[in-house]
């Protein structure tokens, strides 16, 4: 219970019993005393981040629900390994979403102060978030608080932490979300939009750079004129084998790589010769706030956002007649060449998709595997089938009911672009997902 003379931060720190610390020590291979010292730094971060979250849309209800769930699961006591790991994963996802781009920096500072590795610091941050939720849930239940009353209390608790964990210096970038006032404004400065059981958040556009002082403008114009003169005077030398159309296609806002192109579905990207993969440009970053309180930082045209939008938008329905419609290509799932082994970076997107599917428990999806048209058609079909099953099992292994995920290989049957170039073949070697029931 959080008494008047105690704070959420102090109670959360005190909630780490010797048994919990021993469990944490076994997982991180660090000493109990070292972990206890690290928690004195991690817990205030978690409290302030949660206090900032209640200021956003649906924040009070989300934190109220998460707190009640955490307290109901007895997260402040030793748990079975499977349940314990599930909460640790949720805690990590929550902190990554709340701290955003500063997550790695915050964990690094904690690791440096505690003199242990970055994975241990991330584990401590996750444990701090889970414990804070448990204390919040206990306080909410004992005092029968509404989500709004809980939010008021939590904001007060966050504002009581007058000093930030990581002080700002001229050499250290500021850490948004650690100061409660900063956290509140950072969640409302962008654009929020309701979507299904959660929210999407698009960060505000970066401020325009300061205007160049007048005394430099003429010099800048003169330099630009010299550069343009050189370019037009040496046009043939600057082409480097590229034609005029490809050079004219580059934009001043976002330069397109020399081998850049646009996929048939309109998503830009480029062919990476070293890996043989097509690297998609997933668009402007935005934050998905899922109904279970977790967040994902993804691109506006990413697989995650397209899947989430389809599931959340009631106006978008499954086409049960034309089953070739509705397929969404994974833009960050790759396999080792000619094999069914997923690359390491693929698991992040598969984990994101699994999290989205878990927030839409009635949905059923199908995973499609495809190859290019080179080689033996039968072997290509078998390879695509095994790759689709591998992706399906990976998603199921991340907590999605296996009965909700189907897999099918199509080989080179449904190519989306001609197989005449390495770039085209890379586009055709893909894994896709289609919602077959919402």
Short description:
The protein is an alpha+beta fold. It has helices spanning 8-14, 18-28, 32-53, 59-72, 81-99, 103-114, 118-142, 147-159, 180-186, 214-233, 235-238, 244-248, 303-312, 346-358, 377-397, 422-428; strands at 191-195, 198-202, 260-262, 268-272, 277-280, 285-289, 295-299, 328-329, 364-370, 405-409, 430-437.
- Low-confidence runs: 1-5, 163-190, 195-199, 203-259
**Order of strands, widest sheet:** 1-2-6-7
- End-to-end gap: 41 Å
Shape: elongated
Structural class: alpha+beta
Question: What is the β-strand count?
Answer: 11
Keywords: Membrane
Organism: Hymenobacter rigui
Protein name: OmpA family protein
Domain OmpA-like: 322-438
Molecular structure report:
- This protein is α+β, with helices and mostly antiparallel strands and 438 residues long.
- The chain has 16 helices and eleven strands.
- It folds into two domains: 8-189, no CATH class; 283-437, OmpA-like domain (60s Ribosomal Protein L30, Chain: A), CATH 3.30.1330.
- A hairpin with a 5-residue loop joins strand 6 and strand 7 (295-299).
- The two termini are 41 Å apart.
- Mean pLDDT is 77; it is low at 1-5, 163-190, 195-199 and 203-259.
- Residues 252-264 have a biased composition (Low complexity).
- Residues 322-438 form the OmpA-like domain.
């Amino acid at each position: 219970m959080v008494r008047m003379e105690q704070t959420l931060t102090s109670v959360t720190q005190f909630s780490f019993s010797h048994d919990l610390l021993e469990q944490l020590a076994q997982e991180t291979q660090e000493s109990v005393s070292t972990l206890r010292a690290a928690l004195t730094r991690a817990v205030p971060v978690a409290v302030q981040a949660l206090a900032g979250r209640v200021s956003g849309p649906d924040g009070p209800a989300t934190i109220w629900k998460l707190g009640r769930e955490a307290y109901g699961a007895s997260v402040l006591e030793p748990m079975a390994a499977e349940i314990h790991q599930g909460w640790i994963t949720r805690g990590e996802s929550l902190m990554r979403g709340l701290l955003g781009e500063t997550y790695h920096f915050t964990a690094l500072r904690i690791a440096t102060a505690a003199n242990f590795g970055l994975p241990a610091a991330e584990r401590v941050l996750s444990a701090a978030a889970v414990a804070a939720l448990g204390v919040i849930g206990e306080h909410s239940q004992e005092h029968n608080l509404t989500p709004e009353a809980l939010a008021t209390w939590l904001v007060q608790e966050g504002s009581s932490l007058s000093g930030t964990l990581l002080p700002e210096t001229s050499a250290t970038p500021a850490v948004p979300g650690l100061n409660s006032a900063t956290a509140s404004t950072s969640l409302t400065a962008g654009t929020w939009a309701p979507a299904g059981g959660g929210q999407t958040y698009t960060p505000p556009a970066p401020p325009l750079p300061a205007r160049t002082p007048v005394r430099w403008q003429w010099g800048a114009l003169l330099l630009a004129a010299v550069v343009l003169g050189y370019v037009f005077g040496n046009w043939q030398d600057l082409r480097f084998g590229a034609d005029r159309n490809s050079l004219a296609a580059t934009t001043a806002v976002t330069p397109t790589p020399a081998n850049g192109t646009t996929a048939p579905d309109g998503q830009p990207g480029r062919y990476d010769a070293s890996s043989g993969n097509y690297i998609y440009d997933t668009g402007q970053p935005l934050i998905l706030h899922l109904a279970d309180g977790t967040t994902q930082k993804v691109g506006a045209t990413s697989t995650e956002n397209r899947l989430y939008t389809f599931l959340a938008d009631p106006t978008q329905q499954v086409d049960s007649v034309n089953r070739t419609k509705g397929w969404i290509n994974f833009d960050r799932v790759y396999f080792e060449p000619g094999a069914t082994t997923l690359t390491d970076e693929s698991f992040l997107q598969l984990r994101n998709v699994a999290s989205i599917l878990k927030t839409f428990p009635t949905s059923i999806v199908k995973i499609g595997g495809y190859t290019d048209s080179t080689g033996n058609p039968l072997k290509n079909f078998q390879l695509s089938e095994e790759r689709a099953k591998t992706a399906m099992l990976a998603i199921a292994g991340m907590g999605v009911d296996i009965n909700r995920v189907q897999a099918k290989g199509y080989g080179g049957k449904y190519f989306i672009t001609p197989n005449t170039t390495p770039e085209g073949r890379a586009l055709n070697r893909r894994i896709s997902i289609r919602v077959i029931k919402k």
